[in-house]
Amino acid sequence: MLIIGNEILSGRTQDKNLAHLATKLNEAGIRLREVRVVPDIEAEIVDAVNALRAKFDYVFTTGGIGPTHDDITTACIAKAFGVAVIRHPDAEAALRAHYAAEINEARLKMAEVPEGATLIPNAISVAPGFRMGNVFTMAGVPRIMQAMLDAIIPHLEGGATVLSANIATDLLEGTIAAGLTEIQNRYMDIDIGSYPTYESAQGYRTTLVLRSPDAERNEAARSEIEALILSLGGLVVAVPAA
Amino acid sequence: MLIIGNEILSGRTQDKNLAHLATKLNEAGIRLREVRVVPDIEAEIVDAVNALRAKFDYVFTTGGIGPTHDDITTACIAKAFGVAVIRHPDAEAALRAHYAAEINEARLKMAEVPEGATLIPNAISVAPGFRMGNVFTMAGVPRIMQAMLDAIIPHLEGGATVLSANIATDLLEGTIAAGLTEIQNRYMDIDIGSYPTYESAQGYRTTLVLRSPDAERNEAARSEIEALILSLGGLVVAVPAA
User: Fold this and answer.
1) What is the DSSP letter of A56?
2) Would you kindly state where each structural domain of chain A is located, as residue ranges?
């Protein structure tokens, strides 16, 4: 995933698209492996696009495809692929129909795509995203990004969905670490993560998350961790679904 | 910034450290220029550390320095720098004093640092972060990360603090884009961002954010944008501080 936008790097805007993309990809059996956040600077975007599209099966970008001067993503994707920016006739027709008398050059900029790209429909506000090679370019506004992603997902090739099981305890990480390592070593097919949290109401909690495509294996490892917690005098506490 | 952790990439955990780091760095006159999120995989972490420390003045990592099997950040930083992992005597003494009879090998792992690193104090839970060259390694738990960052900030060399001014309108981006480009072209020293939002209660809003170290220049540009909005028949609407 490539998140494009000064507003994320300045701390002004809290990104909401990463968690949504991760969740939806996981449901489709695709694992999100890296995220980069880069500013609205052409060279930074081009370099990141080229690094990520060479390294991964799919790349998803968010942000920078609106009508204003700081929306430079389309031009950067075209540059990364070494192609021209063209005005897509279908996108232009849709924008002209939608905006009618309010159409102008700035809005028509949203009909531009890299030459060879295919459109990603936008069920919210018409202006499309696009697919260029293995790179999917989406809007940054979360509800538009989500609509575009819904249109993309059926076209992706995924593997088995990774399932997760959770267990939480009042024991500190350092108390369960040795036993947990021993369990992890016997369940190498499961990715077991240990996450400490602190909430003023309940104090420290440790949550263990087990992730693999095999629900039965997850449950077997979860049972062993539960037994470990109880053997160490800990409590197994309620935890929201993974 | 390098965010290390499968839990961010799976969508399970919403990162809260990026926005905090960005805000604090900005106050110190340091601009956050890139963020990467990588999984708990040694080669990925080592490659990212080496890419980022060569490219930027400072690198800040979060996550992966606890006592459990999935905490591999310290080993990865050492590998990136080509040094050994050692147990730091001051960190060990602090952990032994804190945990007393509860000390164990897993907890002593939190005394490990790359050879040559200096400790970053942890006012919350004792186990320290560390600085190795231009790389600052912090915990992932937000309140611990924040305490470590408070200890780091006075040691960083920053430039002028970037100040921001905001203005929001009910006009759509496409309506103001042409006039805004004209203003941006006359205020090249100001980074003007345009951010569309949609809230079900109020519909679409466009927020313009002006960022430069010069408050007077920001205000001059903000006044021009306000005049632009009014000339186009738009409303200037209240907006929270940048």
Assistant:
1) S
2) 2-155, 163-237
The interface predicted TM-score of the complex, written ipTM, equals: 0.94
- Smallest Cα distance from A182 to chain B, Å: 9
Rg (CA), chain A: 22
Instruction: Give the nearest chain B residue to A197 (CA atoms).
Output: B141
**Best mutation site among B2, B10, B40 for testing chain A: the one with the most A CBs within 10 Å?**
B10
A44-65 pLDDT, tens digit per residue, is: 999 999 999 999 999 999 999 9
Tell me the per-residue pLDDT of A158-185, one tens digit each, with 9 for 90 and over. 999 899 999 999 999 999 999 999 999 9
- Length of chain B in residues, anyone? 242
Tokens for A114?
């890299």
Superfamily of domain B2-155: MoaB/Mog-like domain (3.40.980.10)
Q: Which amino acid is at A233?
A: G
A10 touches chain B (CB under 8 A): yes
Report the range of poorest mean pLDDT among A197-211, B30-44, B108-122: A197-211
- Name the residue type at position A202: Q
Cβ-Cβ contacts under 8 Å for B8 (sequence gap 6 or more): A18, A22, A35, B15, B37, B63
